[in-house]
Amino acid sequence: MSGLDTDAVAAWLAVHLPGFAGPLTAQKFSGGQSNPTYRLITPTRSYVLRRKPPGVLLKSAHAVEREFRLQRALQDTSVPVARMHILCEDESIIGTPFYIMDEVKGRSFDAPAMPGLTPPERHAILDEMNRVLAAIHDVDLVQTGLTDYGPSGNYYRRQVDRWCAQYTATATDDLPEMTALMAWLDAHIPEDDGQRTLVHGDYRLDNLLFAPHGTACVAVLDWELSTLGHPYADLAAVIMQWSMPATAEGRGLAGVDRAALGLWSDAEFIARYCERRGIAPIEGFHFYLAFSYFRMAAILQGVKRRALDGNASDPARGLRLGEYVPEFARAGLSATKDKI
C-alpha cells in the first residue's frame, strides 16, 4: 500500500494536467524523512508526486509550494532540476497540498565513498557536485524572479534564531551540548558580508541524481529547506557530511583513504568552489561548520519528534536518526574550537 489516495489524485489530474491518462498506480519512495514522495505510474509514462506529510506541522515547515515555485524558476538555468508540471493547493483532494513533476532517471549515491566506481569516476562526480553547488549560488535572482524567495538581513542571525526555536519546540531530552552550541552560535554570528544567494539548505551527494551512464548531474532534489541566504552554509554542510562515519546511516567519509579512492579533500573542495565563483579564500570557516552541525542536530530532532508523534514518513528510521542528535551537537561544539 502506498498510503496515497490514487483515485483522488487520478481524478484531479485528469482535469488539471494536460496529457494525463490513467489508470494510475503509486509507489512510495523509501527512506525520506521530510515530504513523502511517490512514483506515479500510468500506461504511457511516470511522474513523481511530492506532498506535505499529514498531521500537525511546524509553521513554515514542509512547504511544497515553495519547492514547486523554485524548481520551476530554475528550469532554464545551469542548475539541473526536474521539470515541474502542476501544483495542487486544494487540501480536500488528498488532505495536503502536493505537486507533480517529471521522474528523472539517474543514479544516486547514498555513500560518498561511491563503492563500485573507479577513482577517476569518483573524482568526476565530486567535481560535478562542486560545479552544481557553485551554479546554485550564482543563480541570477532577478532573471529567475526569486528576489523575494527569502527575507533580507543577516542570514545566520535568522537561521540560528529559527532553528533554536524549532529545536526547543521539538526537544525530547536535556542535551547540555546542544544548549552550549546554541549559545556559542548566538554570540558569534558573523557580520553580514553582502552575499545573498540561493541556498539549497540540504546539499549533499545523496540529494543529487547523476546520469545513468555518466557523471553529469541530471537533477538536484529535496529543496524543502531552500531560501535566500549565505552560500557558505551549503558549502559547510558538504564538509560536515564528509566528517560523519562511513556507515549506512552516517553517510560520511571518516577514516576513509580519500586519495586512494579518488575523492577530494575538504581543502580541495573548498578551494575549487572559491575558484569557480571567483571569490577569495574563506576566513572563519569554523563558524559555518559549527552552524551546519547545529542545524542538522535540530533537523534530526524534528525527525525524531515526528516519529514519536506518528507523523514521520518512515518512523523506524526517524527514531534511528534521532539517536544522532547528541553526536551532531558534540561535533558542533568541537568545530567551534577549530580555527579553520
From TrEMBL:
Q: Which UniProt keywords apply?
A: Transferase
Organism's domain of life?
A: Bacteria
Q: Which Pfam families match?
A: APH
**Name of the protein:** Putative aminoglycoside phosphotransferase
Say yes or no: keyword Transferase present.
yes
Could you tell me the EC number(s) of this protein? Answer: 2.7.1.-
Q: Which Gene3D superfamilies does the annotation name?
A: 3.90.1200.10, Phosphorylase Kinase, domain 1
> InterPro entries given for it?
ACAD10-like, ACAD10_11_N, Aminoglycoside_PTrfase, Kinase-like_dom_sf
Does the record carry Chaperone as a key word? no
One of the entry's Gene Ontology molecular-function terms is: transferase activity
According to its UniProt entry, this protein's organism is Roseovarius mucosus
Task: Show where the Aminoglycoside phosphotransferase domain sits.
Answer: 26-249
- List membrane-spanning regions: none
